[in-house]
Amino acid sequence: MSDLLKKGFLLGLGAAVASKEKVEKYFQELVSKGKLTPQEAQDLFDSLVKKGEETGERWSLRSKERVRTLFDDLDLVSKQEFAQLKERVEELEKKVDGTSTIPADEDNKEGPTS
User: Fold this and answer.
1) DSSP code of residue 105
2) Among 17, 78, 104, 113, which is least packed by CB within 10 angstroms?
């Protein structure tokens, strides 16, 4: 799954770079034909970049929300939730038997793998 996400990200990044280069070339052509001043072209380009960044941020937030929803649907806990639960269990173990914490299992540091 991670490899698929990485490939998708790289594909999107490649498309963005290619699009940026095409836009720059198009603006250069408009400037050379006298249809835009260099400053107008730069302002327009900056505006497009800003809108692209805003769109990327919205996409990122929506993607994170979808992942959270998926975790909830699958009844999975986050790494942070697991760490909090682990800490609570260790505190309860101390109260029950009055000993120090039990060493963490080295194979299971990051939580359940369900």
Assistant:
1) P
2) 113
**97 located within any domain:** no
52, with CB counted inside 10 A (0-12, 13-18, 19+), is middle
Residue 108 lies in a domain: no
- Digit-coded pLDDT (tens) for 7-36: 666 666 666 666 778 878 888 888 899 988
Give residue 35's domain range.
Answer: 2-75
pTM over 0.70: no
Cα–Cα distance, 112 to 114 (Å, whole number):
6
**Is residue 70 included in any domain, yes or no?**
yes
The DSSP secondary-structure symbol of 74 reads: T
* 43 within a domain of the structure (yes/no): yes
Spatial separation of the C-alpha atoms in residues 19 and 26, rounded to whole Å:
10
